[in-house]
Amino acid sequence: MLLESRRDVGVPELTARVVRASFPKGTLAIRLREALGPLFEDESFAEAFPVRGRPAISPGALALVSVLQFAEGLSDRQAADQVRARMDWKFLLGLELDDPGFDFTVLGDFRARLIGHGLEERLLGLVLERISGLGLLRAGGRQRTDSTHVFAAVRTLNRMEFVGETLRAALEALAAAAPQWLAGHITAAWAERYGARIDSYRFPKGENVRQKWAEQVGRDGFTLLEAAFTPGAPGWLREVPAVQVLRRAWVEQYHRDGEGVRWREAKDLPPGRHRLASPYDPDARYSVKRGSGWCGYKTHLSETCEPDAPHVITHVVTTDATVGDTEMTDAVHHGLAARELLPDEHIVDAGYVTAAHIVRARDEHGIDLLGPVGADTVHERHEGEHIAQGAFTEPFQSGHRSGDGRAVVDEGRTDRAPR
């Protein structure tokens, strides 16, 4: 679609009059428009759209709708309906009250274009620029960072469910792409095994029987892969994404040698960071934190936390679920430095703090990294190599005491009187 630039000329008079009469106290959308004005210009997204073709819906408007969609937890269809039905959304978008909106599929296409052109951080960057220009955000002060779980939009599968569902997904994809080719390589028994969604409750009872079932799935998968990769097979079959996922999953989950196909033992599996967790989201990973497991991702959010200023998210980075917080401290600082929004004090929890992080934050960025340092887990002392945490004590010496028991300084040391 061709980018059709739509310059925001303000809220139409009738829209403004009706909305302000209907919502005298305002709504989130109304306050956004009144405080920040038009946030996104179409030209900011021009590189994601071709110069020829049918005119596109305004990217600036789609960016605003995407922000509201996330804030209210709406699906694409629901968000598109709100554009048609909500007067306050029309106020924010600068639309006439009778504007018909757009088809909901446009939102998915817009997100795909942002990701495809590496513009996924453009929305946050433009908002921060506007807020900074209004004097509501500046470098320095205090910021804090913490992470949160992001669940992938897939089922959490155990190993047997995973291999069965991975093979089923490949069969479904090939049934749609090459039905005649597939019919010549499977039997009726395959339809019985893989026709329905793979669930644990349908598995045979008994550990040995289940292992045989898993090995049967492995043999079927290798049979399908061999057929797809033979010289006589259409070359494009091996490029089908579900077939590529199947090939990788079988390397991770199975051994195949002269004795046949064998289920890998847990100790032979790849590390969780490199192992597929779902055939439908190859980037999702399974992880456990504080006894809670989830399949998906982890997002690290940084925000200002000055008591007399608005709290504003300044940096966002998303990783797979297995990446530890300690690996992201430097990345957060570099990201904030690129936006010229480094804080003076950065408050984090124990997951982000090591001695090296504290030193680098101070020396490279002038930041005081504040957070609890992890407990000392080294039990043996090695002369010249390790100083246990218990060796660092605060000396308390006899000194002057105030009448109410407050600590007072005596030659550079402190003392606290008992109450």
Question: Would you write up a description of this structure?
Answer:
- The chain has 419 residues and is an alpha+beta fold.
- It has 14 helices and ten strands.
- It has helices at residues 13-22, 28-36, 59-72, 76-85, 87-93, 105-116, 122-133, 159-177, 179-183, 188-194, 207-229, 241-253, 329-338, 355-365; strands at residues 142-151, 254-257, 260-263, 285-289, 292-304, 313-320, 345-347, 368-370, 408-410, 413-415.
For the secondary structure, the number of strands is: 10
Proportion of helical residues = 25-40%
Mean pLDDT: 86
Tell me, briefly, the overall form.
globular
End-to-end distance: 76 Å
SSE string, helices as H and strands as E: HHHHHHHEHHHHHEEEEEHEHEEE
Structural class based on helices, strands and sheet pairing:
alpha+beta
| Number of contiguous helices | 14
Strand content: 5-15%
